[in-house]
Specification:
Number of helices: 9
Strand content: 5-15%
Distance between the termini: 142 Å
Shape: elongated
Radius of gyration: 38 Å
Largest sheet: 4 strands, antiparallel
Strand order of the largest sheet: 5-6-8-7
């Protein structure tokens, strides 16, 4: 029995030694793994850098700002309609031009820097008379404004459609005509008018009257309707030369076919109080445009709205 006990003690001693060796190996392996792993602090730091880093923005994702629909009356604008206009139903207008509402009054409250009698806006059927006697309120914004092609110009949908058709027809006839002015807000028109008045300061009290024959006072501009455009020869930026161009002749002969009239005809300044502007067209629809053009009368005469 003594021999058996001694042999058992030897075996237990060997097993104990083996377990110690295994335990040492396990601890060594674990230590090596820990030394190769990032600490909690370094892990958080690395992820913080990843989260905090701004992702690169590709040109396609960069928000684009549409050019302002505001224009300079002296025709120093370079924006031109594309050959194939792309109509955008929801224009992204700069802050000054954003239509805050379309359910707005038409009649001007009567506040004006020009001392003239302001009367209620004259409306015949769908035609709104806008001039120095019949003004739009500063809050008036036309409905369904859309952008004309890839330009920064905005007009009502039907005006855009008619203008595209007309300019395409002119192009087929070998005549290139570009858009240089369209919808303007009351605020933009006010700025343009003040700029023009400053040019006539030497005339003193008569400065505003003289300026008003070139640039309509705020509320008196048809551009606020979104149905009026200024066109020009792409080779010339001078409106004073436009009446001598082939573009002017083509417009005079054809614009009514597409629903436009030359709003301020030659020889009618005493009635419209605006100089002859063969580049300034207003969309009224084909029926009315043809009737008014064939009559040889300006819009005020035809509607008898100036009496």
């Amino acid at each position: 029995m003594a021999g058996l006990g001694s042999e058992l003690e030897v075996r237990m001693s060997k097993a104990k030694g083996l377990w110690i060796v295994i335990l040492v190996l396990i601890m060594s392996t674990a230590s090596a793994c820990i030394s190769q792993s990032p600490s909690s602090e370094s892990y958080l730091s690395a992820n913080h850098q990843l989260i905090g880093k701004k992702p690169a923005v590709s040109p396609k994702n960069t928000p684009s700002r549409s050019p302002s629909p505001s224009e300079n009356v002296q025709s120093d604008e370079s924006a031109q309609p594309s050959d194939v206009p792309e109509i955008t139903a929801s224009p992204s207008l700069p802050q000054e031009e954003v239509p805050v509402t379309t359910d707005t009054p038409i009649v001007n409250s009567g506040n004006s820097s020009v001392e003239e009698k302001i009367e209620p806006t004259y409306v015949f059927d769908s035609i709104i008379i806008v001039n120095k006697k019949h003004r739009l309120d500063k809050s008036y914004v036309p409905e369904n404004l859309v952008r004309y092609g890839k330009t920064g110009y905005y007009l009502t949908q039907e005006t855009v459609d008619a203008l595209k058709t007309m300019l395409d027809a002119a192009k087929e006839d070998g005549i290139s005509i570009v858009l240089t002015s369209a919808y303007r807000t009351y605020a933009r028109q006010e700025t343009l008018f003040k700029q023009e008045v400053n040019k006539y300061k030497k005339y003193g009290d008569d400065a505003e009257r003289r300026a008003g024959q070139v640039v309509a006072p705020p509320g008196a501009s048809e551009h606020q309707l979104g149905t009026t455009v200024d066109l020009r020869d792409p080779k010339s930026t001078k409106f004073s030369e436009f009446k001598y161009t082939e573009q002017s002749e083509w417009i005079k002969e054809n614009c009514a076919k597409y629903g436009f009239i030359i709003r301020y005809p030659e020889g009618k300044t005493d009635i419209t109080d605006i100089i002859y502007e063969p580049w300034h067209l207003r969309y009224l629809g084909v029926e009315y445009a043809k009737k008014i053009t064939e009559s040889g009368l300006c819009l005020e005469e035809w509607l008898d709205a100036d009496s």
